[in-house]
Design brief:
The chain contains twelve helices and 15 strands. The chain is of the alpha/beta class. The chain folds into two domains: 129 residues, Enolase-like, N-terminal domain (Enolase-like, domain 1, 2-Layer Sandwich), CATH 3.30.390.10; 221 residues, Alpha-Beta Barrel (TIM Barrel). Helix 9 packs parallel to helix 10. The longest helix is centred in the N-terminal third of the chain and has 19 residues. It is globular.
Length: 369
């Protein structure tokens, strides 16, 4: 396989409802789509970086430059034995996993299409034919608004509710959610909003039998998470801390978490995501697939990833309509009444691209050959 061209497209899509975390509020997404071409076949990937460097150091504008100037050149024109070869070719780039992962995922999709196989099968998945789904609900303007939103998501069949928390929007909010919905699978995501000095405050969340508290402390601190986990009954789930399989090994060795969230972009693509999955599985640590407000391409890739066997907890891979009035794929990702997504058998990531809509919402495009 020899890549002949890489096409970058930046699209702009308004969210149907704002999404707020401890980092701030998002009302629209600027997303980079990566198309790779070889032998008359195209593969597609999505860069999951946000519009600002708040979740990690990457943002849409930086990812464009990294892709154009550093990621695409060493891969173009090279004879690749398989999609596995992409990650080593760009491993010299420090950080910027989301930019690297966008192109790497596109090559996996291309190779699966060339082989006439669904992407989930091509990456070694297939442990389940339906993906159990949860939802991530951002910080709302009021607790009643949050409770109403949870009610609607449960009525849609979603199997797990994740709510964002931050100082001032945490224990009392979780208490009211638990009082209203005593039997649901519930977790809280802090997005690094706390420090170890908040340990006693966070211990109060043990009263609400949460599935997990996600990334309560700094984005790059595994040691403090180990200290915090020793003081909590509730399992800690690590997200931002885990950028590689090696980070997972370190966290597991230090007993810094009981669960790991795997995000395809955060770890640089399918090759590293599979390695991380295997490390966690060998240690008996369950994983689940996190979301980054992806459009349809990234959402379809997440579905494929979540078919690997150790993705035993409901992830954030929810229906397209939760975020977009119109998605860039056809049909849009949909959930069943049981809160699952059926895995598709079409080649590649399994959905058709809505090229006309993509053209309409593209704000810039560049070809690299």
């Amino acid at each position: 396989m020899k890549l002949e061209k890489v096409i970058l497209r930046q699209i702009r899509m308004p969210l149907v409802h704002f999404f707020e975390t401890s980092f701030g509020r998002t009302t629209a997404r600027d997303i980079i789509l990566v198309e790779v071409l070889a032998g008359g076949v195209s593969g597609w990937g999505e860069v999951t970086a946000g519009e600002n460097p708040f979740y990690n150091e990457e943002w849409t504008a930086s990812a464009w430059l990294i892709l154009r100037d550093y990621v695409a050149p060493p891969v173009l024109g090279r004879n690749l034995e398989s999609a596995q070869d992409v990650a080593p070719l760009v491993a010299h780039i420090r950080g910027h996993q989301m930019a690297r992962g966008g192109l790497e995922a596109a090559v996996w999709d291309l190779e699966a299409r060339q082989a006439g196989r669904p992407l989930w099968q091509h990456i070694g998945g297939g442990a389940r034919r339906e993906i159990p789904c949860g939802v991530s609900i951002g910080i709302q303007d009021s607790v009643p608004q949050l409770l109403d939103k949870i009610e609607r998501e449960l009525a849609e069949g979603y199997q797990r509710i994740k709510i964002k928390i931050k100082p001032g929007w945490d224990v009392d909010v979780v208490r009211q959610v638990r009082e209203r919905f005593p039997g649901i699978k519930l977790m809280a995501d802090a997005n690094s909003a706390y420090t170890l000095a908040d340990a006693e405050h966070l211990r109060r969340l043990d009263d609400f039998y949460l599935m997990m508290i996600e990334q309560p402390l700094s984005h790059d601190d595994i040691i403090d998470h180990a200290q915090l986990q020793s003081r909590l009954q509730t399992p800690i789930c690590l997200d931002e801390c885990i950028r590689s399989a090696h980070h997972a090994e370190q966290a597991i060795r230090l007993r810094a978490c009981g669960i790991i969230n795997i995000k395809l972009g955060r770890v640089g693509g399918f090759r590293e995501a599979r390695r991380l999955h295997d490390v966690a599985q060998a240690a008996g640590i369950p994983v689940w697939c996190g979301g980054m407000l992806e459009a349809g391409v990234g959402r379809a890739h997440n579905v494929a990833l979540a078919t690997l066997p150790n993705f035993v907890l409901p992830g954030d891979v929810s229906a397209s309509k939760r975020y977009w009035a119109r998605d860039i794929i056809s049909p849009p990702v949909e959930t069943t009444a049981q809160g699952t997504i059926a895995v598709r058998d079409e080649p590649g990531f399994g959905y058709e691209l809505d090229h006309e809509f993509i053209r309409r919402i593209t704000v810039r495009e560049e070809s690299i050959a």
